[in-house]
Structures are given as C-alpha cells and as structure tokens.
Specification:
The protein folds into three domains: 2-28 and 334-457, Neutral Protease, domain 2, CATH 1.10.390.10; 43-230, Immunoglobulin-like, CATH 2.60.40; 464-548, Immunoglobulin-like (Sandwich), CATH 2.60.40.1840. Helix content is 25%, strand content 33%. The two termini are 47 Å apart.
Length: 552
C-alpha cells in the first residue's frame, strides 16, 4: 500500500505540474460570446417553439471532403410535440439545397442561424424534416466541424459543446432533447470514420468508404461526434457486474498506436470502479472507446467515444486523470444530462470528484485528500449554479468540493446511496440542480437547504476564517482561547464544521470540533502540555481559507 501510494503521489505531482485536463483548459476554451452569459445566449440561440419540439431520431448522412474543406449532408429528423411551427438551429453560412416535410419539398426561411418551417405539429403527430445542405462550417473558439491534418494525413473532428452541433447539421440543439442517432460518414477509402454507438457496417463506394454508426440509447446533440483519419484500431473487453461482455474500441493515429496501447489499457478497471460505485456502465450494449483529435491538450466526453488531444498520448500514463474524468462523464453528463447549461456543475463537478473517488478506490483516503488539496482554491468567484464562466475552474473544482462536503455532511452510506439513486432515476434523461437537491434531502432525510444555498445557489467564492490565539494561566492551569471570525464579504455567514488540532510536544495532539455558524466564535481549551502548533481541517473536509490574524 505504501509503495502504491508513493507511486500515486509521484504521478499526482506530474499531473499537477502539467495539468492540461479539461478543467484547466476550459478557462481558455475560447468558445467566444457563447460563454459570456449563458442565460442570454440560450434565449437568443433557442426559439421558444423549439422547447415544444421533441426530436425522436436523427438520421445524418455526411460526406466529408477534406481537400476542399466542405461537408455535404442530408439530415432527416423525426419529431413530435405540440408546436405552432418547426424551428431548428442551423448556421446560416451553410448552403441549404432542399428542405422536405414528410417527404414533400416545402418552403422555409432562414434567420439568426435558424430554419423556420411554418407547419403546426399536434401532440399525436409525428413528422419528418429532411434538410440537404453543403458548406464549410464556421468555427468559434474550438467548436465546429474541423478540417485538420496530422503528420500530413487528414484528421477531421467535431466539437459541439455547448451549442455548436448546428454548425454542421440541423438540430434542436438543446441538451434536454435527447434522440436516437443513425449517422453515415463518407470519406476517402483510406480513412476510418468514428462516431457514437455501435458500428453497423462499412460500405465501399469507389474511392470512398461509408461508416454507419447507430445508437440504441438517446443522445444529446452536443455529444454527437465525428472523427475521421487514418486511425489504427485495437480493442479490449470490459466484463460487467453481471458478467456481460462489452467491447472497448480505441482509435489512435497510427504513429501513436504503441503509446495508446499503454496509456489506454486501464479502461476496463476504470469502468469497473465506477460501475461498482455508481451502477453499471450506462451504454453497455454499445461500446466505450477513445480516439484522438487535434485539440492538442483537451479532451471531450462524447457519448461512448471520448476524444483526447494528441499531445496527451505519451505511453507513460501521465494523463490518466483526464481519461478517468472523461470516462466519468458517461455517467455524469451523458447518461444523466443537465437540464440546462446553468446546471453544468452536475457534469463537471461530478466528473472531477469522480477522479478523486477513483484514486480513493485504488490508493485510499490519503489519495482522496491529495486530490481535494490539488483542486483547492481561494478564487471561485460567482455562484456554482448559473456560473459566470461555463467552463471555468469553479465549475469543475468547487463542484467537486461541494460533493465532497456533502459526503461529509450526510455520511458515506447516504452519499453513495444518493449517487446511485440519482443515476438510476435520471439515467437517459436530464436533471436540474433542484432535482439533485430534492433527492439529496429525500435520501438523507435531512434539511439541506442551508447547505445548497451557501455552496451552490447564493454563496460566492469561499468562506475566509481569520483566527487568533491567546493563552491564560489560572490556578496552575493553562487555557488556550481561539477566536474565529468569518471575514468574507460575498456571503455573510457560512455554516462550517471545523476540526482544530492542537499539537503538543512529543507528537501528542488533541482535536476539538467547532460548528462555525456565526460571524464570530471563540473556544477555550485547557492545554494538556506545552503548545507547539495549531492546525485547521487536517482531514481536508471543508472548502475554506484559515488565516492567522497578524498581531497588532
């Protein structure tokens, strides 16, 4: 155990020094104005009629011409709902050649990166909308359908999150409108085309080749993925909790196959850890896989097929934390989707805490504490719900800390029961922060409104505790008085459980507990020996800053 934990600490230091995972890159993800104010952007991007629409199935047929950087596509959407008109997201730089409704060509209009079809849908109706188009998708930041190259070979890939699927296919681009997917990708015959779900077939077409992928589980548009290159391909097998066999499919660029076979070999064990913690892998009848793309230091959790930056394939397992993080999203974000982008911490905070849980499962409590210390920060501006930056570090790291503190508040028994019930209740659906809060209260049978108010909905940044000490002698006894003050200015009073360790000579110590639920509080302790030092929160249980007050 000690040797394993030492190896773990060394790898943790390497990961910390070269922390290029999504949570650190996210602050520089450069998704442009889309991320400045999600409420305004969603209102501008999503027409009210879209929320009345329910897409049941996407049938996408894409031809990717890497030489001219053009895609030719036909998207057939099967939909139901109760809407006064059909409105779809689709960027207006793309050239629409034809729109058909239920097989018949129909009139349409374009405005503000949307397609409008003046057709009412009744509750009992099911309609099909077919859009034939071509063009070069525009990029914003890292997002779009991207034509690239690696080692002189084509590499084409997509990044849709949060709202860029419609840069390359017509869609109802809401995270809550999950649908089934068939996608046929045609490219040069020497290239491999990878997407979500299971491979149904590969069909040669002269100098081209078409790959047909299909999902049997619903998928959000932002998780739909296309990756095309001269990939190598190797496989592995995951054995489920009931001995089900699921294939793992890996698609590195050929030059990285040897390194990828080393870096990615732990996935069966990773999946097993999360299956035992949360419940069985959600897409066990399809696959899990990893492929490379050109966002060199980034990674994305596309459903059943994680995309990872080519700089992260080293053959030395330096970036296992990223692989663990993206795998965790298959439960948190993909199976259980966010009700809106305001709830993004339910994706990223859960995946980040899953990294810590994975290390705890392998290396013990010390690894858990090391993880929490690594993501500790005093700079978490804004609220976790509806955050100021959609992919800022706060969403990842404070989100993980909230789960860690919730675990300490309600205990392991109720916490892991909560995670399993949350997963089972909202699997293949979407959940809001309010849904999670309600379930946490139900499972724990505790009033947790105060907890979520201060850590998620209202609390800005973190509590700052200033403390001072004084000694008093009385009747041949020595008493230590510790005064605590909350001095943060964004939230008046946090309720914080604080463990204080009083350290004596000869490595002796005692621990006292304080519930810091007022702006100021003091405790008095009779000392049992010569005082050496005082330490706060030794078990890394609370997201707070403890600062000794300077002597006046």
């Amino acid at each position: 155990m000690k040797k394993s934990f030492l190896i773990y600490l060394i790898s943790l230091i390497i990961a910390f020094l070269g922390d290029v995972s999504m949570r650190s890159l996210a602050c520089n993800s450069a998704n442009g104005n889309l991320l400045d104010n999600m409420q305004n952007d969603e209102e501008e991007y999503i027409h009210p009629e879209q929320k009345k629409l329910d897409i049941l199935h996407y049938d996408l047929d894409i031809l990717a011409d890497h030489r001219n950087k053009i895609i030719y596509g036909t998207a057939v959407l099967t939909a139901t709902g109760q809407a006064d008109s059909i409105v779809l997201n689709f960027f207006d730089n793309m050239d629409i050649l034809r729109v058909a409704l239920n097989g018949a060509e129909t009139l349409f209009s374009e405005y503000g990166n949307k397609i409008y079809i003046q057709e009412k849908i009744k509750t009992e109706d099911t309609v099909t909308v077919s859009v034939t188009y071509r063009g070069t998708p525009v990029m914003e930041g890292h997002t779009s359908f991207i034509f690239g190259e690696i080692n002189t070979n084509p590499l084409m890939y997509t990044i849709n999150e949060p709202m860029s699927a419609s840069r390359w296919f017509p869609s109802n681009d809401l995270p809550t409108d999950k649908a089934l997917l068939d996608i046929k990708i045609t490219a040069d015959s020497g290239l491999v085309s990878v997407s979500n779900g299971k491979l149904i077939g590969v069909y040669p077409k002269g100098s081209k080749k078409t790959y047909h992928w299909q999902t049997k589980y619903p998928i959000s548009t932002y998780l739909i993925s296309v990756n095309i290159s001269d990939y190598a391909h190797f496989t592995d097998t995951y054995t489920g909790l009931r001995n089900e066999k699921m294939e793992l499919h890996y698609f590195p660029v050929k030059e990285h196959q040897k390194e990828a076979m080393i870096d990615w070999e732990d996935h069966p064990a990773m999946i097993r850890v999360f299956a035992e913690l949360f419940g069985e892998y959600p897409f066990i009848d399809e696959k899990y896989g990893v492929t490379e793309f050109l966002w060199m230091n980034g990674a994305l959790e596309h459903q059943t097929i994680t995309s990872i930056g080519y700089k992260l394939v080293t053959g030395r397992k330096y970036f296992n934390d990223i692989l663990v993080h993206e795998l965790a999203h298959q439960w948190w974000g993909n199976a259980v989707g966010p009700a809106s982008w305001k709830d993004i911490w339910l994706n990223e905070g859960f995946a980040t805490y899953s990294e810590a849980l994975y290390d705890e499962a392998l290396y013990g409590k010390g690894a858990l504490s090391a993880n929490m210390n690594r993501i500790y920060s005093i700079h978490f501006a804004g609220t976790l719900y509806d955050p100021p930056e959609l992919f800022g570090r706060m969403v990842y790291d404070k989100g993980a800390w909230v789960l860690h503190m919730l675990r300490n508040e309600i205990g392991d028994l109720y916490f892991f029961r909560l995670l399993r019930e949350y997963y089972q209740k909202y699997k293949y659906k979407n959940a809001s922060t309010f849904d999670f809060v309600a379930l946490a209260k139900e499972v724990s049978e505790m009033d947790l409104d105060w907890f979520f108010d201060q850590w998620v909905f209202k609390g800005d940044n973190i509590p700052v505790i200033e403390w001072s000490k004084s000694l008093k002698k009385e009747n041949n006894r020595v008493y230590l008085q510790i005064k605590l003050s909350q001095i943060q200015d964004k939230f008046p009073v946090y309720r914080i459980p604080v463990d204080i360790v009083i350290n004596y000579e000869k490595r002796r110590s005692e621990r006292v507990f304080v519930l810091m639920d007022e702006r100021e509080k003091s405790i008095t302790v009779e000392l049992k020996d010569e005082l050496q030092t005082i330490s706060f929160d030794p078990d890394t249980r609370v997201l707070a800053s403890f600062n000794e007050k300077e002597s006046e």
